[in-house]
Design a protein that fits this description.
Length: 296
């Protein structure tokens, strides 16, 4: 087998992005160039590496096997380049992915604590949804990811070997509502009152469902605004244009004009915050980041 480093980087990016089109955009190639590299990889491996689906591309078992070795090869090449250029880092890098509301609540205090306790650890961060962060972990472009899960809190992907997952905390889902209007002055709302309210939610896709609407509402919720950015959603709430869901732990980050409401008349919606990484012994730097996340 003879694989170029470019082809291995394409394999890693396709695994992370979930499509040839997205991988081409991230790497600065045309889609046809990505397709040619994918075909060359499959010829070199003598096996089918990619499963083409209507909603994207996934790696076959053979593709996942090659990806595992590609991560090691590309890491060694990057380290060799640093050694040859004399730019080997003195710090201990950790590439951390985190879900959006976690970036607002967990990340700032965790990084502040880490700077005081382990200043040699250099963290770079990336925000993303749980499915996209898991793809990045599998592709080897993240060292650690902070994810969320719903009951019964099973692993989010069925690939092998399973990710190493640690629980950070459980948090209750609440409704963020304007401090004025029909819910003014209240600390709770009945689930039946949420059926006809206007909702502000994140756009959904086949792999990543809509976030921001209370789960289990009967009928079709009335989504009036869609936005991925948390600040946008919460500013729309503060201006009185709808409600959205947020974890209770996000309370300190809410802008003026927004209050948290407990939902009665329905089972509590618990979200678990998890730290996930590839299996195997973690580096001391990853252990330090985990320790800081658990502390806050």
């Amino acid at each position: 087998m003879d694989f170029s480093s470019t082809a291995l980087r394409v394999l890693r990016q396709v695994a992370e992005s979930g499509s040839f089109t997205a991988a081409a955009a991230r790497l600065g190639y045309t889609q046809s160039a990505i397709s040619r590299q994918a075909a060359a990889l499959e010829r070199g491996a003598g096996a089918v590496l990619f499963e083409r689906h209507f909603d994207g591309v996934r790696l076959t078992p053979a593709g996942l096997t090659l990806l595992r070795h590609a991560r090691t090869i590309l890491a060694c090449l990057d380290e060799a380049a640093q050694d040859l250029s004399g730019s080997a880092p003195r710090s201990e890098p950790v590439r951390l992915g985190i879900f959006p509301s976690g970036g607002a609540t967990l990340l700032p205090p965790a990084l502040t604590l880490l700077a005081a306790t382990d200043p040699q650890v250099a963290v770079t961060t990336r925000e993303g949804t749980t499915p996209s962060l898991i793809r990045s972990l599998r592709a080897g472009s993240l060292d650690l990811a902070v994810l969320t899960s719903r009951p019964p809190h099973r692993p989010s992907d069925g690939e092998s070997p399973p990710l190493h997952v640690e629980r950070i905390e459980d948090t209750e889902l609440c409704v963020a509502a304007p401090t004025t209007g029909v819910f003014a002055g209240r600390t709770a709302v009945h689930a039946g009152e949420l059926v006809d309210v206007p909702w502000i939610a994140a756009p959904s896709s086949g792999a990543e469902p809509s976030l921001g609407v209370w789960p289990g509402l009967p009928g079709r919720p009335r989504v009036v605004h869609t936005a991925r950015d948390w600040l946008t959603k919460l500013r729309l709430v503060a201006a009185g244009f709808g409600v959205t869901t947020v974890p209770r732990g996000m309370g300190p980050a809410l802008p003026p004009g927004v209050s948290l409401l407990r939902v009665d008349g329905a089972p509590p919606e618990i979200r678990r915050v998890l730290a996930a990484r590839l299996p195997g012994p973690p580096s001391p730097a990853v252990v330090a980041v985990l320790r800081a996340l658990a502390a806050v």
